[in-house]
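User: I'm putting together notes for a lab meeting next week and I want to include a structural view of one of the chains we've been expressing. I don't have a solved structure, so I'd like a prediction I can at least talk through. The sequence is below, exactly as it appears in our construct file.
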Amino acid sequence: MKRSYLVRSAIVVLCLLVSLWQTEFSLPLLWERGHYFIDTAARMFPPDTSFLDVILVPLRDTVYISLLGTVLGGIIGAVGTVLCNGYVNRWKVARIILKAAVHVFRCIPVLILALLCTFVFGLGMWSGIIAVTLSTAAVLSRLGYEDSENAELKTARVLEYAGAGCFKAWWVSVWKQILPGYLANLLYLLESNVRNAAVLGFVGAGGIGLLLNEKLAWREYSKVGMILCVLYLVVLATESLSGFLRVHLIESETKHKKWYIPTVLCGFFIFFSFLTGFPAMSGVNKTALASIAEGVVSPDITMMFSLATEAVPTLLFETLCIAFLGTLGGTVFALLLSVLSCFRFLGLAALLMRLLLLVFRSVPVLVYGLLWIRVTGPGPFAGVLTMALCSIGLLAKRFLIAIDSIDMKPYYALRASGVHILAAVRWAVVPQILPHYLSAVIYRMDINLREVAVLGLVGAGGIGTPLVLAMNHYEWKQAGALLWGLILLAAAAGAVSEKYRRSYRLRKSR
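Assistant: Thanks for the context. Below is the predicted structure for the 510-residue chain, given as C-alpha cells.
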C-alpha cells in the first residue's frame, strides 16, 4: 500500500513539473506584475451607477436566454433520456447514434456552440438560446440515461408482463425513481447557464456579454464594475432560488409532488417572456451549415496526427496542462476557503466568506482571462491563472456541500476525549469527506478541459485560440480537426471521471 502511494505521488509530481514547463509558469513574473491584476480590479470600484439603465435590458436578455435554454434543454433532455434507454428503445443502432450525438454536444463548450450557431442562425439571442439548449439537453440526457440504466427494473417488468407497454411501464416505475435526481441536475444547470449566458455576447449571441466585452475593450472599468455587481446579484438570486427549490424537492419526495420545480421554472419562463417578448429568429444560413458539417465530417487529418506546434496533439497536451494546473491551484485555495466559509465550524462569521466565494463564481471566465493577460501577456500562463480562479468558487461550493453532509459525532467524541483538533479532523472528518473531495476535483478537471477552449477568445493558450481563429476565418476543415481533438479529450476525461464515480459507488455499497 505504501509503495503504491509513493508511485502515485511520484506520478503527480512528474505531471506537475511537466505542466509547469509546458505552460511557462513563472512565479517571479507573477510576483513582479501580479499587482496589475489587483490594480485593474480596483479600478472597477466604485461602480458607475449611472450605467445601470443601460445594463437592465441586456441583463434581462441574459436571464431570458439562460431560462429558456434551461427549460427547452430540460424537455429535450427528458426525451433524450427515454430514447437512449435500452429498456424503452430497443434499436441498438439508434441508441448508439443518439448517445454519440449526446457525447459530442456535451463535450463542446457552450461558448463554442454559440459561435457556431452565429454562423448558421445569425447574431442575436436565438444563437445563444440554441447553444444553451443543446448543451443542457446533452448533459441532462447523459445523466438521465445513466441513472435510468442503474435504476431498479423489477416493477417495470412486472407492469409490462401485466399488459402495459414497455414505455408506460418504464415511465410509471423508472422515471419516477430518477425524476428527483433529474430535477436536481436541472437546477444545477440553471445556475451554470446564467453564468454561461453572461459571456455569450462576446461572440454575438445576445445578452450582456456584448456590452461587457465592449467596456472591457475601451477600459471603462467603472462601468465593467457595475455590470459585474449586477451579475453578482443575479447569480446570488439564482443560487438562492435553486437552493430553495432543492430543499422543497427533497421534502416533496415523500409527498409525491415532483411537479413543484417544473411549475416554478415554467412560471418564471412565462414571466420573462411577457417582459422580453419572444425574440425573432432569422433564417438558417444553409451554406454555412453545409460548410460546418463538411469540416466536421472530413476534418484536416494532417493536423490530427502531426507533432507540429500548431497541430492537434500538441495543443491538446497544452490544454491538458492548463486544466491540470488550474484545477490543482483552485483546489488548494478552495480547501482553505471552504473551511473558513463553513457555518458548522465558524457560525455566522462564515457568511462573509460565502459571499466572497460567490464573487469568484459570478465573474465570467473571459473577464478573468482578460485581466490576467494584462499581467502575463497572451499564452498558457494566463490560462492557468484564469482556470485557478474559476475553480476556487465552484470547488469550494462542492466542498461545503460535502462538509455539511458529514456526521460530526465522531469528531466531537474525539475532542471530548482530549484528542488534539488536528488529530480529530484527521481521523473523524477526513475519511468522510475525502471521496467527495476527489469526486469534485475530478469533475472540475473535466469541466476545465472544456473551459480552456473558451479562453481562446482572449488568447489565453490551449486549443481554444487556434480553434476560434479557424472558425472566424472559415477554415472549417482545420476547425473540424481541432473540434474533434477537443471532443475526444473531453470524452476521455469524462470516462475517467465516470469510472472513478462507479468504483466509489461499488466500494460504498460493499
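A couple of points you could mention at the meeting. The first helix runs from residue 2 to 22. Residues 49-276 form a domain with the MetI-like fold fold (CATH 1.10.3720.10).

User: Perfect, that's what I needed.
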